[in-house]
Every structure is written in C-alpha cells, then in structure tokens.
Amino acid sequence: MAHFVSLASVGVLALVVPHSLAVPFVSEAETTVRSNAATTASVVAVTNVTSHGAYTGPPATTTGALSTEVTALTIPARPPEQYKLQYPADGQLHQPQPAPYTPGGGLGTNGTEPVYRVVSDFDYESVALALYQEWIELDLFHWGLARFSAEEFEAAGLNAEDRFLIQFMANQEVGHATALTNMLGRNAPVQCTYNYPVTSVREFIDFNQKLTRWGESGVYGFINHLDSRETAQILLQSITTEARQQLIFRQFDGLFPMPVWFEIGIPQSWAWTLLAPYISSCPANQTRLIWQNFPSLRVLNQPNPARINGSDVWNETTGGYANTLSTRNISRSESCLNATTGQNCAPAISRNRTIPLSYPGRQVFLEWDSPGKTVGPNNSYVTSVSAGYPRYAAWVSQLNVTYTPLQDVNGNTAYTIQPNTSTYEGDPAVNGTIFLAITDDDLFVTPFNLTQINPHVNALAIYQAG
Ligand SMILES: *[C@@H]1O[C@H](CO)[C@@H](O)[C@H](O)[C@H]1NC(C)=O
Ligand SMILES: *[C@@H]1O[C@H](CO)[C@@H](O)[C@H](O)[C@H]1NC(C)=O
Ligand SMILES: *[C@@H]1O[C@H](CO)[C@@H](O)[C@H](O)[C@H]1NC(C)=O
Ligand SMILES: *[C@@H]1O[C@H](CO)[C@@H](O)[C@H](O)[C@H]1NC(C)=O
Ligand SMILES: *[C@@H]1O[C@H](CO)[C@@H](O)[C@H](O)[C@H]1NC(C)=O
Ligand SMILES: *[C@@H]1O[C@H](CO)[C@@H](O)[C@H](O)[C@H]1NC(C)=O
Ligand SMILES: *[C@@H]1O[C@H](CO)[C@@H](O)[C@H](O)[C@H]1NC(C)=O
Ligand SMILES: *[C@@H]1O[C@H](CO)[C@@H](O)[C@H](O)[C@H]1NC(C)=O
Ligand SMILES: *[C@@H]1O[C@H](CO)[C@@H](O)[C@H](O)[C@H]1NC(C)=O
Ligand SMILES: *[C@@H]1O[C@H](CO)[C@@H](O)[C@H](O)[C@H]1NC(C)=O
Ligand SMILES: *[C@@H]1O[C@H](CO)[C@@H](O)[C@H](O)[C@H]1NC(C)=O
Ligand SMILES: *[C@@H]1O[C@H](CO)[C@@H](O)[C@H](O)[C@H]1NC(C)=O
Prior knowledge:
The protein is an alpha+beta fold. The protein has one domain (121-464). 24% of the residues lie in helices and 12% in strands. The chain contains 6 helices and 12 strands. The strands form 4 sheets. A 4-stranded antiparallel beta sheet has the order 3-4-10-9, with no helix packed on it. The radius of gyration is 24 Å and the shape is globular. 42% of the residues are buried. The model is unreliable at 1-17 (pLDDT under 50). It binds 2-acetamido-2-deoxy-beta-D-glucopyranose (12 copies). One 2-acetamido-2-deoxy-beta-D-glucopyranose is lined by residues 57, 60-61, 281-284, 286, 378.
C-alpha cells in the first residue's frame, strides 16, 4: 500500500553511445544497448462501470456533506501580511545564495526529501474531489465510445483517429486516478456509477467540453492553497493534461479552442456542485466530501454551439448545472455541422463564428432551484445556501468576477445582461465556457480569494459564452 508516490523508481534508459565529437555520424542511429523495461508502477484497479442512469435505490442512510466542529460562519477579510509588501523587486539580489546559481527563498527548495502525500484536511478534501472528477472522466469517455456507433461519430464529423484520441484521454484518467489515489492512501474515493445528460454524439462532446472545464478550473482554484506542495506538483502535471482535453473537446465541438488569455480557477464547492448531479451511486463505504452543493441554475437561453445562430435559442439544454446543449430540436437547416465557412461548426483545429454564441448586452434569462434538494451519489447530499435575497449574476471568467444586477426577479426567475468587460485591454473577459452564479451581494473577490464568495451564492451554472 503506497502512501506516497516514489519517483525514484522511474527507470532511466541509458543508451551508451561512444562519445566523440569526431564526425562522421550516420543519420540512422543504431541501438546498441538493450534494456529491459524498468519496474512499471501498477495502476489502480479499474472496473468498467456497467450500469448508467439515475439512482433508483433506497434513501441513503448517511446524508449531507462531511463535517466536524465549525468554528465560525464565515472567514473575515483581513489586511495583507506586511512581509509580502517589502521585497524591493528591483532586479538585484537581496539574500545570500544557498548554492551557486541558486537564489535565496522559495518553498521546498532546501533539500528536504519531498513527500507526495496530503498533509491536512484541506489537502485531503481537495485531492479527493479531484479524484472523484478523474473517475467520472474515465467512465464518461469510455461510455461515449461504447454508446455511439462509428456511423454516429462519423456523422458528427469524428473519425476513427479522433475516437482513438478520446480513448487515449480515458487512459490518461487511469494514470491520474492512480497518482491521486496514491497521494490519498487507502481510503481514497473509488469509482462510482454515473448518469449523463447525453443522447447524441454532439451532446456527448459538449458535455465533455463543459465537464472538463470545471474539472480543470476546480483544481486551479485550490492548487496554490494546498499545504503539500509535492502533491500540488503531481496534480499540476495531471491538470495540465486535463486542460488539453478541454481544449480538444472544444475543437471537437467546432468552437474556437481558447478564446481567453487566462483560464479561470473556481472554489472546490463549485466543482463539486457541478459534478455531483452526474454521480448516481457510490459503494457503501465510499469516502465522503466536505464540499457544499449549491442549487441548480438554468440558463433558459443558453447559447447552443450546435446551431448556426447559437444565441437564437430557448430552453435548449439537457438540464441545469452543466447546461449542456441539446440537439433534439435542431433542424438540418439550423444545424451548423455542414454549414458554410463562418457558420460551420464541424470538428476543426479552429473555427471562426461569424454569428457569435453570445455577446455583451445580451439578455440572459435565468431560473434556479431553491435549496434543500437531494443530489449526488445515492442522493445523499443536500443542496444548501447561506446567501440572502438574490440580487446579482456573477460572471466568473479569466481573472475576473463581474456582477450584473438581476432584473425582474420573480420568485426563482430573473434576467440579466451579459456584461461588456475586459480582463486586460484587448481581452474581453466573458468568452468561452465560463461560470455563472446568482449572488446576494457584489463582493469584491480576486483569483486567490474567490472562495470568499461562497456564503453569497444562491445557485450555479455553466454559461456558454463565445
Ligand atoms: C473495459 O472496457 C474496455 C473497452 O471499453 C476493454 O478494453 C477493457 O478490457 C475492459 N476492462 C475490464 C476490466 O473489463
Ligand atoms: C479579495 O482580495 C482583494 C484583493 O485582491 C481584496 O480587495 C478583497 O477585499 C478580498 N475579498 C474578500 C472578501 O476577502
Ligand atoms: C526547509 O524548508 C522548510 C520550509 O519549506 C522548513 O520548514 C524547514 O525547517 C527547512 N529545513 C531546513 C533544514 O532548513
Ligand atoms: C452532415 O454531413 C454528414 C456527412 O455528409 C452527414 O452524415 C450528416 O448527417 C450531416 N448532418 C447534418 C446535421 O446535416
Ligand atoms: C469498502 O468495501 C469493500 C467491499 O466490502 C472493500 O473491499 C474495501 O476494502 C472497503 N474500503 C474501505 C476503505 O474500507
Ligand atoms: C470570443 O472569442 C472569439 C474568438 O477569438 C471572437 O471571435 C469573439 O469575438 C469573442 N467574443 C467576445 C464577446 O469577445
Ligand atoms: C448506494 O447505492 C448503491 C446501489 O444501490 C449501493 O450498493 C450502496 O451501498 C449505496 N451506498 C450508500 C453509501 O448507501
Ligand atoms: C441570431 O439570433 C439572434 C437572437 O434571436 C438575433 O437577434 C440575430 O439577429 C440572429 N442573427 C442572425 C445573423 O440571424
Ligand atoms: C424547459 O423544457 C423542459 C422540458 O424539456 C420543461 O420541463 C420546462 O418547463 C421548460 N422550461 C421553460 C422555462 O420553458
Ligand atoms: C422546436 O422548434 C420549433 C421552432 O423551430 C418550436 O416551435 C418548438 O416549440 C420547438 N420544440 C421544442 C420541444 O423545443
Ligand atoms: C476570424 O475572426 C476574427 C475576429 O473575431 C477576424 O479578425 C478574422 O479576420 C477572422 N478570420 C477569418 C479567416 O474569418
Ligand atoms: C480583471 O482582473 C484583472 C487582474 O486582476 C484586473 O487588472 C482588471 O482590472 C479586472 N477587470 C475588470 C473589468 O475588473
């Protein structure tokens, strides 16, 4: 039982080549040394999930998020630590060097042996959440490949090589699940069963594109807050792979692959809120999580990337939370799959949409649930809020949270206007696959303290900007 990942076992294949600067060399190198593969670290046990669909079993005996003694209702905003304001940052050296070519400072740089292991509740709960995400991706990618025929994939513009790429992404998840399991130890969450709001290849791709968005952003939100920087290192190297998956699924969705300058990070409870509805059940002794489940937000005119005029839609998603596209009511003439250049959205390296999916000034109609609904594995988690009366829509993208007032608030419905705001000059903040929350306040938060928004959140969704 590995409590931490040892990198020492990584084999080095040394090719002993005569070292001489003398030419001539031949262009076809000849391997002269044979090497048996070094020990290969085994991967976690993966069983193919065979059942999919909504949970139908008995009510769960254990419900609600994991919790312990709670010492305060919220975390107050405090002034910055003074030392962070003192380094001169003038390009000169201000500390002795611990070794040649080695600047003073840094964390984990003084030669102590790395320990690839979680060291706090914060670490455990964060990495366990990431593991739940890796598990669903592993199943989801396999499931889609098995669920749809080669003909259905071909009709959506995805050929055998594209499908192999999806298969390879599933294999990557085996590695990610293994690394995270090793860092968590023997009570690490295991694979569950799932339900996917997907009935066509296009819906599958769009769901993947959105699910990997919160998978990626969920980790960006906490990785720099981890106590264990060694754990953060491994996690970083897995999440950058996930980031590529997200981009590739956008390409498969016929979207511009990366219409932003910065990828957003989100709080753990947001990632869990968006993930949990698609987990049907987990084994009896599954390790539970501490994170909050916010109520579902539905974007009633959520832009539909499968349409030529993607913003000309009403109630065309497969449900709240992910708000992924539905293809059920798109006629051939409205579909952008085989449309002309500028309107075409077949899989491609990059696409220009002449009719944007969304735009500043767009009226966005919203409807959200009240708290108190059961959700997640075995319906054993319960949605909750501590926010008061809903007053704002929070557009969370790139480095920014932009609030727009809710208008015509009527029970659990309202509309708002998509803001015209830039992260930096030339970089419109609201673009790509972003997060939209209903809040009771326009609290100022920045990327490193975004979690402070949670007590003010009423409901949460993915918004398809572009
Ligand atoms: C799981 O399914 C894949 C095909 O999707 C197959 O290659 C693999 O052998 C299966 N694994 C198990 C443990 O059944
Ligand atoms: C978040 O950080 C910003 C500075 O980046 C600060 O002005 C703001 O007050 C902080 N918000 C909260 C709620 O702590
Ligand atoms: C090494 O650095 C860590 C912080 O990164 C510190 O806690 C520890 O005391 C240092 N050890 C030595 C031997 O300096
Ligand atoms: C697009 O074209 C492909 C190949 O010609 C075809 O199989 C598919 O049905 C078409 N789809 C739409 C929505 O027109
Ligand atoms: C959970 O239960 C299964 C089956 O009873 C068992 O194999 C596994 O070791 C248990 N896991 C934990 C963390 O107790
Ligand atoms: C979003 O990005 C795409 C691709 O760069 C661009 O064509 C579009 O104008 C952008 N939308 C907004 C609202 O900035
Ligand atoms: C969840 O449901 C599954 C399937 O009905 C069952 O096997 C499992 O024991 C349940 N888990 C919990 C924690 O109740
Ligand atoms: C696309 O749909 C929007 C919203 O219905 C409409 O305002 C716009 O004129 C349409 N654009 C085109 C080019 O048809
Ligand atoms: C949206 O469509 C669903 C069925 O797909 C329906 O149950 C719901 O009432 C509709 N909502 C609105 C606001 O039209
Ligand atoms: C399908 O689209 C037509 C118009 O193209 C509309 O009248 C109808 O209400 C839509 N049906 C559903 C279920 O959304
Ligand atoms: C793509 O769109 C951008 C603006 O969004 C425009 O500047 C560029 O000319 C377009 N390129 C093509 C080939 O359509
Ligand atoms: C977005 O965030 C960046 C970086 O913190 C900041 O400089 C910029 O002013 C913000 N933009 C808006 C419109 O608030």
